[in-house]
Amino acid sequence: MPLITTQVSTALDNNLKEVLKKEFGQIITTIPGKTEKSLMITFQDSMSIFLSGEEKNSAYLEVKLFGSAERKYKEILIEKLSTCITTYCNIPTDHIYITISELPEWGARGKLL
Questions:
Q1: How many CB atoms lie within 10 A of CB 1?
Q2: In whole angstroms, what is the distance from residue 80 CA to residue 108 CA?
Q3: Which InterPro entries match (predicted)?
Q4: pTM of the prediction?
Q5: Checking phi first, is residue 51 left (phi over 0); if not, alpha (psi -120 to 50) or beta?
Q6: If DSSP states are collapsed to H, E and C, what string results for the chain?
Q7: Domain of residue 104, residue span
Q8: What are the pLDDT digits (tens) for 24-36?
């Protein structure tokens, strides 16, 4: 039950959101046991993002995972997400921040899992 929260300075039309949704669905499978079927994604676009004291074309992604994953899989995940954002949003990799939170408890379908 992963969640990818996406904040970008660029505008995302519905077609681009659909492309990113599909790409993220494939990328999440980098983490063993995670699938597109259980993935939730949020998009916030056209944001003012300041980096190094200046407003820049930038992105911040937060990935939340139920449970934990080995570092090697998280490294691949970050690389693929960065490449995706660079490719489709034209944001340079040095303007992309990604955090990963591993959570021991998760609620879904009205229950604590």
A1: 18
A2: 27
A3: Macrophage_inhib_fac, Tautomerase/MIF_sf
A4: 0.95
A5: beta
A6: CCEEEEEECCCCCHHHHHHHHHHHHHHHHHCCCCCHHHCEEEEECCCCCEECCEECCCEEEEEEEECCCCHHHHHHHHHHHHHHHHHHHCCCHHHEEEEEEEECCCEECCEEC
A7: 3-108
A8: 999 999 999 999 9
Kindly state the tokens that stand for 105.
Answer: 């408890």
The bridge status of strand 59-66 relative to strand 96-103 is parallel
Low-confidence ranges of the chain (pLDDT < 70): none
Q: Identify the pLDDT of residue 1.
A: 85
CB atoms under 10 Å from CB of 50, counted, come to 10
* Residue 45 token pair: 């676009």
